[in-house]
């Protein structure tokens, strides 16, 4: 015997309703468990009532008012659909259903306490160390002061510092070898978020005996670009800024991997160099190096804190980041 389209549809609807526990048409699917189970605060209150035999004493122990405790119990009873507590002038007594729910509540609360203890252990492990990666100028001239201040706030946190150029800092963050980084380049490396913490200026310097130390007219960009310089290695923020500002550089006179080494070479008279103003205070004040005026070229740069995209610093890394804002 044939079946009409209308009959077929009705049959499927009936079978679907049976499979879904008789849910009527248009009724929403069952809510998640969080909507069907009382929250931990309510379960703790029920356990306190069972232990103390009084809703008032339970409320005082948990630091809430008795009306608030009564309201919470009534709300839990409506949520579960059963009476949990019999109230009388002599106190509060659990119903049979309340005693059973209390046993379940005890297991849930104990599991939550274990969860909380485990989470705290993870936080303690995170807070016990901080791995910082920083480009050379920041590592040598800014980070020591920040780390001393951080130690005052977190004396139990062990801090390790990995110094390198801006490219190396980005690599260490992206591979999980560092928790927070600091770079000096023109832009934020791919895969990292950042915050500008300070600005810095690059200065052309020479030893006092170099011809540039006695020149009266400012140095022009093309002459600087055409002159072999004592430079940091490729990948350093200082070199990136200088190369971009001049539109290219001559072949390096010497290529070195640290600001301290570049300064030492310049002091020895090996040739001119371009270095961070932060690194030159002592050498300029003692006249071991001379600042050469530069015209028509902007050598200002941003100093940035960086971290993997979407992972805002937490714990000691967050505290260190907050300390840098005073720069």
Automatic annotation (TrEMBL):
Return the Pfam families for the record. Answer: HTH_1, LysR_substrate
Gene3D superfamilies given in the database record: Periplasmic binding protein-like II, Winged helix-like DNA-binding domain superfamily/Winged helix DNA-binding domain
Is Cell membrane found in the keyword set?
A: no
Q: Keywords assigned by UniProt?
A: DNA-binding, Transcription, Transcription regulation
MF terms from GO for this chain are: DNA-binding transcription factor activity; transcription cis-regulatory region binding
Q: Which InterPro entries match?
A: LysR_HTH_N (IPR000847), LysR_subst-bd (IPR005119), WH-like_DNA-bd_sf (IPR036388), WH_DNA-bd_sf (IPR036390)
Keyword check for Transcription, yes or no: yes
Provide the HTH lysR-type domain boundaries: 38-95
Note down the stretches annotated as region Disordered: 1-28
Sequence similarity: Belongs to the LysR transcriptional regulatory family.
- Record PANTHER family: HTH-TYPE TRANSCRIPTIONAL REGULATOR, HTH-TYPE TRANSCRIPTIONAL REGULATOR CYSL
Protein name per Swiss-Prot or TrEMBL: LysR family transcriptional regulator
């Amino acid at each position: 015997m044939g079946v009409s389209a209308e009959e077929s549809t009705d049959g499927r609807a009936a079978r679907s309703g049976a499979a879904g526990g008789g849910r009527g048409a248009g009724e929403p699917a069952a809510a998640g468990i969080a909507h069907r189970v009382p929250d931990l605060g309510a379960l703790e209150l029920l356990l306190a009532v069972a232990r103390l035999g009084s809703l008032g004493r339970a409320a005082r122990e948990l630091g809430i008012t008795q009306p608030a405790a009564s309201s919470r119990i009534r709300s839990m009873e409506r949520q579960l659909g059963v009476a949990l507590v019999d109230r009388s002038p002599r106190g509060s007594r659990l119903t049979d259903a309340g005693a059973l729910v209390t046993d379940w509540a005890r297991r849930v609360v104990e599991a939550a306490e274990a969860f909380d203890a485990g989470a705290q252990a993870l936080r303690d492990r995170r807070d016990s160390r901080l791995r910082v990666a920083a480009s050379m100028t920041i590592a040598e001239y800014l980070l020591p002061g920040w780390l001393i201040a951080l130690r005052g706030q977190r004396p139990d946190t062990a801090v390790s510092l990995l110094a390198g150029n801006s490219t190396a800092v980005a690599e260490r963050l992206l591979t999980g070898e560092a928790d927070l980084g600091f770079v000096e380049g023109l832009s934020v490396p791919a895969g990292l978020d950042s915050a500008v913490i300070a600005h810095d200026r690059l200065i052309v310097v020479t030893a006092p005996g170099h011809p540039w130390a006695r020149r009266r007219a400012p140095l022009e960009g093309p002459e600087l670009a055409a002159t072999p310089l004592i430079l940091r290695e490729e990948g350093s923020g200082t070199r990136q800024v200088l190369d971009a500002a001049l539109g290219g550089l001559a072949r390096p006179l010497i290529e070195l991997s640290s600001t301290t080494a570049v300064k030492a070479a310049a002091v020895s008279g090996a040739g001119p160099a371009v270095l961070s103003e932060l690194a030159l205070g002592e050498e300029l004040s003692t006249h071991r190096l001379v600042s050469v005026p530069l015209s028509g070229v902007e050598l200002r740069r941003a100093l940035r804190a960086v971290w993997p995209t979407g992972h805002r610093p937490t714990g000691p890394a967050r505290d260190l980041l907050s300390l840098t804002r005073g720069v």
